[in-house]
Amino acid sequence: MCVVTPVNPPRLDRTWPPPPPALALREGVRVRILRSVHGDPRAAAALTVRLTDGQLTGSDPLPPEPAALLPELLAPYRHAVRALPDGTRLLLLLAAADQYPVATHAFLRAVAAARLDTRPLEAAEAAGLAHATPGGVGFADPWTRVAAYETAAPADRRDAHRLLARVLHGAGESPRRSWHRAAAALGPSARLAAELTAAAAQARGAGEPALSAVLTERAADLTPAPHAGSRLLARAAADAWNSGDGDRARILAARTDTPALDGVLALRTGHAGDAFDALTEGAARAADGPSDRAGEHARHLVARATEAVVYTGDLRRCREAVHLAHRLGIEPPGVLGSLAAAVDGRYDDARDLLEATAGRCGPGGDPTLLLHAGIAALMLGDHTRAATATVRAAGAARARGLTPLVSQAMEFRAHADLWTGRLRAAEAAALDALRQAYATGQDNGACHLQAALAMFAALAGDAAVCRDRAAAARSYALAHGLGLPAALAQWALALLDLGFGRFDSAAARLRALAGLGPGHGHRAVRHLATPHYVEAAVHTGDTRIARAAHADYDRWAHAVRSADDLALSARCHALLTPGADGVEHYRTALDLHDRGTRALERARTELLFGAALRRLRLRAEARDRLHSAREAFEAFGAPHCAERARAELRALGAPADTAHPPRNRTPRLTAQQLRVARMAADGATNREIATSLALSPRTIDHHLRGVFTRLGIRSRIELVRLLEDEHNA
User: Fold this and answer.
1) Is the peptide bond before 101 cis (omega within 30 degrees of 0)?
2) How far is the C-alpha of 83 from the C-alpha of 71, rounded, in Å?
3) Domain-ending residue, one of 167, 190, 224
4) Residue with the larger pLDDT of the pair 141 and 664
5) 178 in a domain, yes or no?
6) N- to C-terminal Cα separation, the chain
7) What is the pLDDT of residues 18-72, one digit of tens each?
8) What are phi and psi of 116, to 5 degrees?
């Protein structure tokens, strides 16, 4: 048995590192910094003060190896490792080489093949640095693993990799064997580069883009041919992006000249207009390429350019993409063609193209095509089919290891859930997608999700959160040419005003939305917001513009034959028809709502109908409609709208509440409030909750005040008791 003096676990002095600069980091940058340092807040603070202005704002990628910038952090770990016996350090080196950056699970086989004695690991256990596990060695933390590898001599590292490569000979292990062989190489080797390229293709086909990225990047380093190296770096960047490592992808892409790759990255991280230009240039280049798959690649890039059009709302670029597709002999994607047709007023043609695209939502398909099917279904007002297509797109992306597409699919799933009344579940799913978007460097997608969450907050009547989310979304969107989230944020603020009866403000916001150009507004959002604009305009008495907007909306509703759109058009007819003549339009609207899925809008129609019936002194039916609306809004978690129904009931002289209050009070909370409440009840501080949920402490404080108000409590102690009581009930 090897005996050593126990080493205290490495600790840093409390005065180090220095505090970060007084700079409000964007949430995405903060999340990625924490991710890059394995969630260590000390390391995050130390790294932050060493970053450039471009890295702090997110315009430049984070450094690829944060540990290299943190010598003070790693010094005690290196000292602790060097204090161990040689045999212990050898075992830790072998374990570290086996675990990162590629997990090969070959440690025990390597130990057996080399007939190494594992008893020296007891010294590492005594020092608190590592411990034996059924699969090999578990390090106390990632920094110990880094130190165990870096403190070894280069020759010893190469020997460790050769040993690991020698024992990796099982089925499916050739990519990992190739990795260790390449890690042991001393210099360029065309043979090893070819082996790594083949291994990367195998990993890519198995849905392991992270492994493929590492192998391809190493192949680029080892190839003696510069042109081949550039091509391999572009492939490695694409793999890194698909694995969710956005910063690594941007670093690798900067070493190449590949417009298509630049366009894909800009679509999710940069200016959407630049993304469109790069993608269309890449599509033109791809179509002229010698590869047998040139046409398929060009079609894929045109599809991505279509997404750029959707995000920007730039109708000029929409026409450009259609012309490019025709010039390249490619059928324009249905979403793209339908947008162009709708702009020209050819609504029947637009419907046919959308129907054809939305119909391609079967299971197991290409995730990009499924995503387009979901977008097409949303444009048709078919929320059930949109939800199916986007969920299948996320599933297909997960199966293929395409991490960015998962959160992108959930962006559009949020729209499908928005109006169907699944607010709490939808908000929780959108928050998960937001964290994933931030962690993977998809700040454009995060902006879209922020705008969707502003809509959720508007529907729930959470004014502070709605304004915070909308402000964050609009600020980022306007800087990056993202007309879709910018318009959604504006709509969310208008919807919030509408819910609280601020009709002048709601109408002004929606009129402004109609005049915003590409990158600032979006034609589709302006169109979808028409029923809310009509409602606000009728209350302000200025219906001239509203009537023209409704006429166009009604034409689209009849073209697509969506029950929900037809119901909303009938509601607009009712609002624009004075007196008793509007009653039948309301009845028509409710009949159509019964065949649709927009449950929240049905409740709003009942509220408006009930108010109209009260003014017509049809008291019995007015009371029934208003009670129905109140109950629906309470079930959906929209208390401010429920209060409007109560106010109408009080004006009617009827009791506002006829049912006993629910026994459980937590259903009154939004998904975000419930999550914050549970973490607070578990003892987490506001700052800890903020870090976990990628929000500011100020927003967490607002959430907790909202929780206390909605639950009728005053302290965290009461919160703990209430949650325990409801859990035990």
Assistant:
1) yes
2) 18
3) 167
4) 141
5) no
6) 56
7) 444 445 678 899 999 999 999 899 899 999 999 999 999 888 999 988 888 888 8
8) -85, 145
Dihedral (Cα; 582, 585, 586, 590), 10-degree rounding: 180
Residues 430, 489, 645, CA angle at the centre, nearest 5°? 85
Handedness of CA 555, 303, 267, 518 (dihedral sign): negative
332 φ/ψ sector (left φ>0, alpha ψ -120 to 50, else beta): beta
Nearest to 193 by CA among 239, 241, 226: 226
Q: Is 180:104 a contact under the CB 8 Å cutoff?
A: yes
| 13: number of Cβ within 10 Å | 8
Q: Residue 332 to residues 211, 283, 338: CA-CA distances in angstroms?
A: 34, 12, 9
Number of domains in the chain: 2
Whether 220 is covered by a domain: the verdict is: no
Structure tokens at 514: 């109609």
- Going by pLDDT thresholds of 50, 70 and 90, the confidence category of residue 504 is very high
> Residue 252 is encoded by which pair of tokens?
């690798």
φ/ψ (deg, to 5) at 27: -60, -40
In a domain, 48, yes or no: yes
The 10s digit of each residue's pLDDT in 567-614 is 999 999 999 998 899 999 999 999 999 998 888 899 999 999 999 999
Spatial distance between the Cα atoms of 606 and 714, rounded to a whole number of angstroms? 35
- The model's pTM is 0.83
Q: At what angle do helices 27-36 and 41-48 cross, to 10 degrees?
A: 120
129 or 513: which leads in pLDDT: 129
Residue 575 near residue 538 (C-beta atoms within 8 A): yes
Q: What is the domain range of residue 680?
A: 666-728
| Residue 708, phi-psi category: left (phi > 0), alpha (psi -120 to 50), beta (remainder) | alpha
Distances (CA, A) of 14 to 38, 40, 319, 462, 506: 20, 14, 60, 40, 52
- Where on the phi/psi map is residue 219: left (φ > 0), alpha (ψ -120 to 50), or beta? alpha
Beta bridge partners of 138: 131
**What is the per-residue pLDDT for 709?**
73
- Looking at per-residue confidence, does 272 or 13 come out higher? 272
- Whether residue 357 contacts residue 372, with contact meaning beta carbons closer than 8 Å, is answered with yes
For 189-209, what is each residue's pLDDT tens digit? 999 999 999 999 999 999 999
pLDDT(383) > 60: yes
Q: SS in 3 state form for 201-216?
A: HHHHHCCCHHHHHHHH
Asked, for residue 636, whether it belongs to a domain, the answer is no
Of the CA atoms within 13 Å of residue 421, those in its CB half-sphere come to 16
Amino acid at 34: L
Residue for token pair 């020759």: 155
Domain boundary among 142, 167, 192: 167
Spell out the alpha helix ranges (H) of 594-685: 599-615, 619-636, 639-652, 671-681
Q: Which of 532, 563, 572 is nearest to 380 (CA)?
A: 563
CATH number for the domain including 671? 1.10.10.10
Give the Å distances, CA to CA, from 287 to 257, 284, 302, 308. 17, 5, 11, 19
Residue-level length of the chain: 729
Q: Which amino acid is at 566?
A: L
Mean pLDDT over the full length of the chain:
88
Do residues 209 and 440 make contact, with C-beta atoms less than 8 angstroms apart? no
How big is the chain by its Cα radius of gyration, in Å?
Answer: 29
Burial of 397 per CB tally in 10 Å (0-12, 13-18, 19+): buried
Two tokens at 214? 């590492």
Nearest to 558 by CA among 127, 550, 389, 144: 550
